[in-house]
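haha ok so turns out i had the wrong file open the whole time. this is the CORRECT one, sorry everyone. sequence first:
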Amino acid sequence: MTSREAAAALETSKTVVLPIGSIEQHGPHLPNGTDIMAAELIAEEVAARLDAVYTPFCPYGVTPIHAGHPGTVTLRRETFEALLTDVCTELIKAGAETVIMVNWHEGNIPSMNAVATDLQDRYGVTFIAAQACYTAARLYRDEGGELTHGGGIETLAVLAYDETLAKTELVGEPTRPPGAFEMDEMRRSPEVYGFITDVTELADDGWYGNPHWATVDRSKDFTHVVASGVLAGIEVVMKARRIRANNQQKESP
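then structure:
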């Protein structure tokens, strides 16, 4: 996209979609870029279906719990937040009025929320955060899909991105170390939750789950399924904002 094309696209849409993920180890069978690959796939479809502007972002995220494992690159929170702030600020100055962040890494969430609330307050624009990994977990739960680190749903995302990158033949039987699932549930609870500071608290080799649940056939509609779930959530947010705006207009003298 040229500069002129970018200006025209933002003038038409006023909405940008950013993929946000991380670069971190995913066991012997998935690439370090699993999270950003998943985020990019979903963000691209979301942008296309909204006629919004897809805006590439940094592939790195806040992932200190994976630090020290070969291939992992973690940013400090202040680095990630500064980068996200600068990118979003430039997009807003260029004409963006709605910023949609499509994320596939829970370690980014606190920083994303901090940046979004700060910039929304400062510039009067709308920020929406879509936790696509959690959307995928909900949508595939009834089929037996689990959002474990390096497990079935993440393998499905890699197969959808490029099936040659998923090397499930390198792992044997599904693995579920005692307490791993419970620790994941604990740290992801929306109510009362605790923390882990090293991924080996889940599993000694840094991953667990059932990669073999994912198949090439099942992966063919992964992007569409998850993007549809994300879009439904975006519509809920936008509907709430429209209701609020209409009420404010009615209250105006």
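The domain at 3-251 is CATH 3.40.50.10310 (Rossmann fold).
again sry for the mixup
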